[in-house]
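Hey, weird one. I pasted the Erythromycin esterase sequence into the form twice and got a warning about non-standard characters only the second time. First submission, copied straight from the form history:
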Amino acid sequence: MSDAVTNWIEHHAHRLTEFDPAAPLTDLKPLRAMIGGAKVVALGSSIRTSHELSALSHRILRLLVEFSGFRSLAFEGDDPHELGLDEYISTGTGDARALLSVARTFWQLEEVADLVEWMREHHRQHPDDAIRFARDLRRIPDSAPGPEDLAAIERDLADNITWWLEESTTKIVHWGGIAHTAVGDPRAVSPAPEPIEHRNAGAYLRERLGPDYVSVGLTFHHGLAPFEIPPPPEGFADHVLGQVAMDAYLLDLRQECPPSVESWLRSPTRTRLIGPAFDPGDHESFHMSGGSLKDWFDILIHVNEISPAQPLD
């Protein structure tokens, strides 16, 4: 089965060759047709501290802004307006790295600072057609949330993006983690004493927007981020995706495929889901389950080996 899947991917995926956010976007051009006229494109990463996945997300944002008319970034975590980041990209007031230094740890990265500086430069060059940060009006609990709180967080996240879509009348790139962006109706998140299962933001947004919500999953096979992450065990989708003879690739999961491949894409699976509390000795416990690749994602971007994102200086 895996040979049939990898052979099909090798013939239908688009090889990605660049990780430099400023490099030409030639290798990503096929993504434009895949996105089509969507109003919200979600970039869901299986880990937030990878240089490659962060850089690719930046490149995709560039592509969608420069060629597809997207003008808002919903950057999952804190409210960029409260932090002063939206003011910074609009007026240059403040210092991007200083503003990010008080944000969540997965924002305190040079890759995120590079993104903010690019947004500032875009605003400077196009003041009448600038990209903005979406406002985040949610209030995240200070203490560790319980299952009911987590379900409410997902609904609130979807509500906030829906509100900003109406408020700003702009198309939105939602940059976050796959636990939130995948179409999970429901999906389960591990590790936990019992896997935490509930409907997530991606499922609410797909229900509300239909094909105007496009879910892009960014996955990987192994690497450092900054802790060592071994290859995934068999039974993980990432195990098969990593056998493809490309270091990085882009794949539209909605295209026609042979029955054996379709069966694999629609079969329940697990995929990596790694946060800051990762335990390399128990790496197989860190995953998302409760659905299939075709349930979760419209488009897949896979990188075989990742390296650490750079903390802010």
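That's the output from the first submission. The warning seems to come from a hidden character in my clipboard, not from the data itself. Residues 80 and 195 are 31 Å apart (CA to CA).
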